[in-house]
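// run 5 | inverse folding | seed 20
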C-alpha cells in the first residue's frame, strides 16, 4: 500500500529485575518516501516504556513470606552431599513456605504426608530409614493455623518436586490450583530406576480422578510444559523450572517489598554450602547432576544481579535462623 508504514518489534526479552532486555524496531516505508514525524516516534517510545514499566513493577505492598515446619528426617549427610560423612547421622528439617500476596496465597511444598502421624506404615521401609518427626503439631493444618489459615485459604500450591517430604500432602488442597511440571507428574507416577524409592505411590494417586471420570486430575492444575510461570503476572512470585534433583523440579522466586528477592530452592540445593562453595550433591538422588550444578550457577547469578538470598528446605543450621511462623519476612 502506497505510504504504508510497518512497525514491528523484532525481539523483546526480559526477566523481571534482571533487566535482561533486548529490543529493536524496524521501520520501513513502501511507495512514496515518507518521514516518520516526531509525534509518532514519541508515541512508539511511550508504548514501549509503558510495557517495560509494567514488567518491572514494584512488588505489591502487604506481601509476606512465612516459614512452616513439617518435622524432620534423620540420615547421614553423605546421602545428600558428595563425600560428606555418613556417621553420625544428622537431623534435617522439612520446610514449607507460604507467601501472602494481594491476589492470593501461595504454598511452596506440602511436606511429609500427615498419614504417617497415625500410620507409619504408609511410608513402608522409608519410615524406619528416615525416622521422621510425626507429631500432630507438624501436620499441615496445624502449621497453617499458626498464620490463621486453612488449606482452603491457599490459592496455589507449588511443589518443588513430588518426593515424599515435599509433595506428601498435595491431596489436602482440593480447592487450590496445583502448579507442577508435566514431566514431574509422569516421573512421580512411574519413576526411572533407581529413583523410585523416594516417591510414595499414594501421594501421587491423590492427584488422579476417580474411576469413570473423563478428566484425569482430581484437583485443579496448572501443568507446565518445561517452562517458568509468573503466577500473578507482576514478577512477585515466579516458578522457575529446575530440572536436576528430579526430572521436573521447580524453584520459586519471591520478590518481597522490603526483604527483596528470596529464592526457595526445594532440593535444587540441600545446604547453603552447596551453592556458596560449589559442593556437588550425592548423585544417588540426582536425576540430572549437571542440571543441579546449573541450578547452583543460576542462584549465584541471581545473587549477583539482584541481590537475591536463597532459602533451602533441609539445611539444619540455616533453618534454625529462619523466622518461623507466625513471624514473617516482608
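// decoded
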Amino acid at each position: 500500500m502506497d505510504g504504508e508504514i510497518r512497525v514491528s518489534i523484532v525481539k523483546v526479552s526480559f526477566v523481571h529485575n534482571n533487566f535482561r532486555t533486548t529490543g529493536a524496531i524496524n521501520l520501513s516505508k513502501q511507495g512514496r518516501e515518507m518521514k516518520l514525524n516526531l509525534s509518532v516516534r514519541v508515541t512508539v517510545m511511550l508504548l514501549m516504556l509503558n510495557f517495560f514499566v509494567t514488567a518491572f513493577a514494584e512488588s505489591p505492598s502487604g506481601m509476606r513470606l512465612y516459614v512452616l515446619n513439617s518435622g524432620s528426617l534423620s540420615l547421614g549427610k553423605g546421602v545428600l552431599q558428595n563425600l560428606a560423612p555418613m556417621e553420625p547421622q544428622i537431623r534435617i528439617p522439612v520446610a514449607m513456605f507460604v507467601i501472602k500476596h494481594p491476589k492470593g496465597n501461595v504454598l511452596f511444598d506440602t511436606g511429609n504426608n500427615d498419614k504417617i502421624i497415625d500410620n507409619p506404615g504408609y511410608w513402608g521401609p522409608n519410615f524406619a530409614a528416615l525416622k521422621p518427626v510425626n507429631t500432630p503439631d507438624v501436620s499441615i493444618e496445624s502449621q497453617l493455623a499458626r498464620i490463621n489459615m486453612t488449606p482452603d485459604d491457599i490459592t496455589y500450591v507449588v511443589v518443588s518436586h513430588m518426593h515424599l517430604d515435599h509433595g506428601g500432602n498435595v491431596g489436602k488442597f482440593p480447592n487450590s490450583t496445583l502448579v507442577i511440571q508435566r514431566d514431574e507428574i509422569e516421573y512421580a507416577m512411574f519413576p526411572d530406576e533407581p529413583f523410585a524409592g523416594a516417591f510414595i505411590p499414594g501421594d501421587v494417586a491423590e492427584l488422579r480422578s476417580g474411576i469413570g471420570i473423563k478428566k484425569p486430575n482430581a484437583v485443579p492444575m496448572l501443568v507446565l510444559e518445561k517452562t517458568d510461570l509468573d503466577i500473578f503476572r507482576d514478577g512477585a512470585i515466579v516458578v522457575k523450572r529446575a530440572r536436576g534433583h528430579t526430572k521436573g523440579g521447580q524453584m520459586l522466586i519471591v520478590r518481597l517489598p522490603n526483604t527483596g528477592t528470596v529464592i526457595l530452592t526445594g532440593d535444587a540445593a540441600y545446604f547453603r554450602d552447596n551453592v556458596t562453595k560449589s559442593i556437588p550433591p550425592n548423585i544417588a538422588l540426582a536425576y540430572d547432576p549437571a542440571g543441579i550444578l546449573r541450578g547452583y550457577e543460576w542462584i549465584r547469578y541471581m545473587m549477583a544481579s539482584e541481590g537475591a538470598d536463597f532459602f533451602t528446605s533441609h539445611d539444619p543450621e540455616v533453618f534454625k535462623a529462619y523466622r518461623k511462623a507466625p513471624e514473617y519476612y516482608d
